[in-house]
Amino acid sequence: MAGSGAMDLDLLALANALVGNPGDTAAIEIAMLGPTLVCEADRCRVALAGAPFVLGLNGQRLDAYTACDLRRGDRLTLGAPREGMRAYLAVSGGFALAPMLGSLSTHTRSRLGGLDGTALRAGDRLPLLDPAPAAQPLTLPAHHRPRFGGPIRVVLGPQADSFTEAGLRTFLTEPYTLTARADRMGCHLDGPAIAHADGFNIVSDGIVNGSIQVPGHGRPLILLADRHTTGGYPKIATVISADLGRLAQVRPGEAIRFEAVSVEAAQAIAREARQAVSRRLAAMIPAGGGSLDSAFLLACNLIGGVVSAEPHETAP
């Protein structure tokens, strides 16, 4: 069975936390141009995390990374983002949809999951599971919000020996441009050809999220969330898990550079990425200033350090 799920699990977790959901609750993944949504519940809470889409409620601008309560008849609009590619719209309580293989994710190529196995279309209605929010709406302060950009870090292999030294050097030193042939299954890159050492066919083996194949034309092909399970082109490298979200924000026409790291470094970066998400979750505060009552203050870490009040002895 092919893979699926959010292209950026960290952003999904942040959007869900803002509306009080568990981090893996199904949300709407939005790419490049957002929809117009109409609330048909008495009340629900929504929040957007990711690329800075132009977000509006009944014609009034809204801030991303900030939960907002909608009432029946409210219209939520999402215009094109100034930068980046994808964002996640979470709804309090999640969606009342039947899971497929234990998931609410949509795999459009096999028409499985989600709502009728397809991307959302005009007129679709998403039933809400329990839309009434129970706590205060939250916001993530601007200086804690994720930033995009920078090189895409990779671990070389598992078939790095299928390429010449010059081919590996080309891959790691030359820029590649994301082409229009990019979707949730994978993205084709354009740029200098990478030289194979001895042909470009191998016995098909496993594909993971971030596998970078190099077909006969020599340009990289990165497999992503909706990837197939096996492939017969040699894989020059694998994008580290911590950079998959940043890769998902690259637009067609933008350039990518690759940087090789060791397995140990990739593991350390992944641990730091998980800690960064935890810090962002802990940094969320009530939206609109909120109520600084004792319960909220006791939940915050208000101590940034300790200074001794005793005098220090000086050396003679």
Give me the count of strands.
20
Termini separation comes to: 74 Å
Strand content: 15-25%
CATH topology of the largest domain: Jelly Rolls
- Encode the helix/strand succession as letters: HEEEEEEEEEEHEEEEEEEHEEHEH
Instruction: Give the C-level CATH assignment of the largest domain.
Output: Mainly Beta
Neighbour order of strands in the largest sheet: 18-11-12-15-14-17-10-19
Q: What characteristic shape results from the CA principal axes?
A: elongated
Largest sheet: 8 strands, mixed
Average pLDDT figure: 90
Keywords: ATP-binding, Hydrolase, Nucleotide-binding
Domain Carboxyltransferase: 2-277
GO molecular function: ATP binding; hydrolase activity
Protein name: KipI antagonist
Model description:
The protein has 316 residues and is of the alpha+beta class. It folds into 2 domains: 9-140, Sandwich (Jelly Rolls); 152-261, Cyclophilin-like (Cyclophilin, Beta Barrel). The protein has helices at 9-18, 165-173, 244-247, 263-283, 294-299, and strands spanning 28-31, 36-38, 43-50, 55-57, 60-61, 68-71, 75-78, 86-91, 138-139, 152-156, 176-182, 186-190, 205-206, 211-213, 221-223, 230-231, 235-239, 255-256, 258-260, 285-286. The strands form 5 sheets. Strands 18-11-12-15-14-17-10-19 form an 8-stranded mixed sheet. Strands 1-8-3-6 form a 4-stranded antiparallel sheet. The chain has a 4-stranded antiparallel sheet with strand order 2-7-4-5, with no helix packed on it. α1 runs parallel beside α4 (263-283). The radius of gyration is 23 Å and the shape is elongated. This is KipI antagonist. GO terms for molecular function: ATP binding; hydrolase activity. Keywords: ATP-binding, Hydrolase, Nucleotide-binding. InterPro entries: CT_A_B, Cyclophilin-like_dom_sf, PxpC. It comes from Methylobacterium symbioticum.
